Amino acid sequence: MSASTASGAGDCCGSGCRSRRCSGTWHSLGWGWTAPLTSERTYFRQGINPWRTLEQTIAGAAGGLGAIGHGYKVLEPQNGGVFLPGVEDLILLVVLAIACWALVRTWRELPAPYFFYALLVLAMCISSPVRSDPLRSLDRYILTIFPLWMAAGAWVSRVRGLRTVLLLGALLMAFYSYEFATWAFVA
């Protein structure tokens, strides 16, 4: 037995087993053999068409615009996030638009495999929404799509916008640090 197998490293359940035994382990713990494909229900997610996600988000963002127009408080720290739910949809829709812009930049500036990787990961991120908040945590998921950041970084350096980006990043970091320090859910 190798050292990595003995320590549990390199396997999926930490007991030195491989995929067939892991399926048995999952089953003995009450999970079916399709657990990796069906566990999203546990987190109130559902696999749907990305266009349906966009439709739900646009409806929520319109509600957010209506709430802003009627004078509701935009910052509403609660369990669901820092902003009022409709305003959160509006912000995440802007984040998605920026990600789509970065995806176009990826197509123009990087080799095709980077573009297709970023496209598939972005499509996956918007294909399993939370029922009440379709783009929940999209901003967090986009942080892992490295080709978008490579293309955006190339663009920022070309237009000499580094100072602007650093200033905006510092302001956002200060805002979210304050919200986190006041026990608001920031994700």
Q: β content, as a range?
A: under 5%
Helix content: 55-70%
Mean pLDDT: 79
Poorly predicted runs are 1-17
Task: Kindly report the spatial arrangement of strands forming the biggest sheet.
Answer: 1-2
The radius of gyration computed from the alpha-carbon positions, rounded to a whole number of angstroms, is 21 Å
The main pleated sheet reads as:
2 strands, antiparallel
Annotation field: number of helices = 9
Question: Any idea what the shape is?
Answer: globular
Q: How many separate domains?
A: 2
SSE sequence, one letter per element: HHHHEEHHHHH
Structural class: mainly alpha
Distance between the termini: 41 Å
Number of strands: 2
List keywords for this structure.
2 strands, 4% strand, 62% helix, two-stranded antiparallel ribbon, 187 residues, mainly alpha
Describe this structure in words.
The protein has 187 residues and is mainly alpha-helical. It has nine helices and two strands. The chain has helices at residues 3-7, 19-28, 35-38, 50-69, 85-109, 112-125, 138-142, 146-158, 162-181, and strands at 75-78, 81-83. The chain has a two-stranded antiparallel sheet. Strand 1 (75-78) and strand 2 (81-83) form a beta hairpin. The longest helix has 25 residues, at 85-109.
Task: Give a short overview.
The protein has 187 residues and is mainly alpha-helical.
Provide the fold topology:
Elements (H helix, E strand, L loop, with lengths): L2 H5 L11 H10 L6 H4 L11 H20 L5 E4 L2 E3 L1 H25 L2 H14 L12 H5 L3 H13 L3 H20 L6
Antiparallel strand pairs: 1-2
Helix pairs in contact: 4-5, 5-6, 5-8
